[in-house]
Amino acid sequence: MAQDTTRTRPPVTDWTTDWDHLDPQWRDNPFPIWDELRGKCPIAHTQRYLGAYLPTTYAAVKAISYDTTNFSSRRVVVREVRPEPPMPSPPISSDPPHHKPAKQLLLPPFTPDEMKKLEPRARAICNELIDKFIADGRCDAAQMYTRHIPVRVIAHMLDVPESDGDQFIQWIHEILELGITDDDILMKAVHEMSMYFAGYVEARTKKPGDDLISRIIMARQDGKPLPPQEVLGMIRLLLIAGIDTTWSAIGSSLWHLAKVPSDRKRLIAEPQLMPTAIEELLRAYAPVTMAREVVQDTIVEGCPIKKGNMVLLSFPAANRDPAMFPDADKVILDRQENRHSAFGLGIHRCVGSNLARLEMTVAIEEWLKRIPEFRLDPAIPVTWSEGTVRGPRQLPFIFS
Amino acid sequence: MAGGKVVRVRVDPEKCQGHNRCKALAPALFELDEYGNSKEIGDGIVPEGQLEAAYLARANCPEMAVEIIEE
Ligand code: HEM
Ligand code: SF4
Fold first, then answer.
1. Which of A316, A325, A343, B27 meets the CB 3.0–4.6 Å disulfide criterion with A350?
2. Can you give the pLDDT at residue A85?
3. What is each CA distance from A342 to A318, A350, B23, in whole angstroms?
4. Rounded to whole angstroms, how far apart are CA atoms A126 and A37?
5. Is the dihedral of CA A336, A341, A344, A345 positive or negative?
6. What is the pLDDT of residue A3?
7. Percent of chain A having pLDDT more than 70?
């Protein structure tokens, strides 16, 4: 998968003038690249991708996130191509004033109180998965564990078969990874997803339940229901935004705990650290990098920014800025001050942040309860996804 | 009311984006509306035992929306 796009790419020789987030060096270990850039050129430019900027300081990422006048969300992925017009998927692709009404439709089903209701099912899902491989004494945790948790939980919320999860993951892979360079694959996946959900939307418009699809159908904007196309768009967005992201966050967290036994032992001995530990793992291994389109010339942190370029909005790089986070490169499970940007900053704050936190907490707690001792299998490499969402896609553990 | 001073928390509704960090760290001081946006409970006065929670909430709000006012 990842190899398809990298094979044809010229290697990067100077990150300050020619950066490329699909370069294998970035995919495998982006942290030194961001540290270098932060010191030399906090908003680097590249001619690749028809022109794009890369801010690596917290201050620059925050300023751009807040400036919805000069930086539009009409394109939120840095791609090889810029077909016109991009498919809108409110609220993630909306700017003010259209953003807020779209977002308010989605927020009520995702409050912390609503998420608590999902906790028993989420714990059961984790245990069902662990049951399947625990006797083997080893597993690829990315493929056998972390991959299945978010997709089953969201299927449960949408009240569609949890067993359709693999199909959802395939579509998302086509949209988020292959779609960066191939527009046909992207459009085909979007179409197939819409076809799949259209039947559910029709049935539940006639006979609504208390599932998430019905709640979106029943939601009212200025007293009116959403047209079916927009209902489908919101469901697609929730799947695209909610699955790879949380899969990656859980995977990176377990990867860290496998690599650093002292942190793993501490978390088992002091379970009350779980809330700060989750925030710290989100900070250190933030999986999501968004984008903006520059719609007017402007200046950010002293750097001139030209209209028509894209911006790769690296929340993960901002989270590693030592000016904002002392010992930014260290994972400190009880970090007291942590204004990390893993869920974004400003109006596009992640709708699913409470769900993601619940899934991460449950997935790590259940794993540690049943498999407290585990380590990376030195014989098999860890591999990482590339593009908008970064996380382990092969995560070989031994625990016998 | 630490050391005779009155300490209050306040959420700036213009800045709050509903990250819910304040509510998680100081559930006795903040309440959420149906969209998950936060507001201080009542007049926001921080009881003695809640001071640390109030400062933690401020230190973890990504939008810098939690204010602490010492009178
Ligand atoms: C650890 C897991 C997750 C991370 C790190 C994450 C990260 C993010 C980030 C950084 C944004 C901001 C986008 C921007 O500024 O353009 C965002 C937006 C969004 N996320 Fe998440 N997300 C996660 C899980 C989820 C889940 C589980 C859902 C829902 C099921 C979800 C739904 C959304 C939606 C709908 C938006 C758009 C919000 C808007 O534009 O106002 N995310 N997410
Ligand atoms: S932590 Fe900040 S942004 Fe989040 S709910 Fe509290 S006040 Fe609002």
1. A343
2. 62
3. 9, 9, 18
4. 39
5. positive
6. 41
7. 98
Q: Does any CB of chain A come closer than 8 Å to the CB of residue B24?
A: yes
Instruction: Using a CB–CB cutoff of 8 Å, tell me whether B64 touches chain A.
Output: yes
Cα-based distances in Å from A148 to A54, A153, A239: 32, 9, 13
Whole-angstrom distance, CA of residue A380 vs CA of residue A140: 10
Q: What is each CA distance from A28 to A24, A102, A222, A285, A346, in whole angstroms?
A: 6, 36, 47, 13, 29
Percent of chain A with pLDDT over 90: 88
- The stretch A199-213 carries a mean pLDDT of 95
State the Cα–Cα distance between residues A25 and A368, nearest whole angstrom.
31
What DSSP designation does A288 have? B
Nearest CA to ligand 2 atom 2: B61
Q: How many Å apart are CA A211 and CA A76, to the nearest integer?
A: 28
Sorted by sequence, the CB contacts under 8 Å of residue A295 that are 6+ apart come out as A69, A70, A71, A72, A307
A99 CA: distance to closest CA in chain B (Å):
13
Q: How many Cβ atoms from other residues are within 10 Å of residue A268's Cβ?
A: 15
Match 């890369």 to its residue by tokens. A54
Tens-place pLDDT, residues A102-151: 999 999 999 999 999 999 999 999 999 999 999 999 999 999 999 999 99
**Residue A86 confidence (pLDDT):** 62
Looking at per-residue pLDDT, the higher value among A8 and A82 belongs to: A82
The mean per-residue pLDDT over the stretch A391-396 comes to: 98
Residue B40 carries which DSSP code? E
- Asked if pLDDT for residue A2 goes beyond 70, the answer is no
Q: Which ligand 2 atom is at minimum distance from the Cα of B63?
A: 3
Cβ of B21 below 6 Å from ligand 2: yes
Residue A204 has pLDDT above 90, yes or no: yes
Element (H, E) at A305: strand A303-305
Closest approach of chain B CAs to the CA of A204, in angstroms?
A: 24
End-to-end CA distance of chain B: 9
Q: Is A299 left (phi over 0), alpha (psi -120 to 50) or beta?
A: beta
Quickly count: other Cβ atoms within 10 Å of residue A297's Cβ: 11
Strands (E) across B1-71 are located at 7-11, 30-32, 38-40, 66-70
- DSSP H helices, chain B, are 21-25, 51-60
Please state, in angstroms and rounded to a whole number, the distance separating the CA atoms of residues A116 and A144.
25
The residue behind tokens 């930086």 is A71
Q: Closest-lying ligand to the alpha carbon of A76? A: 1
- In this structure, the dihedral spanned by the alpha carbons of residues A60, A65, A67 and A72, taken in order and rounded to 10 degrees, is 120
A103: Cβ below 6 Å to ligand 1?
Answer: yes
Of the candidates A141, A47, A105, the one whose C-alpha atom is nearest the C-alpha of residue A396 is A141
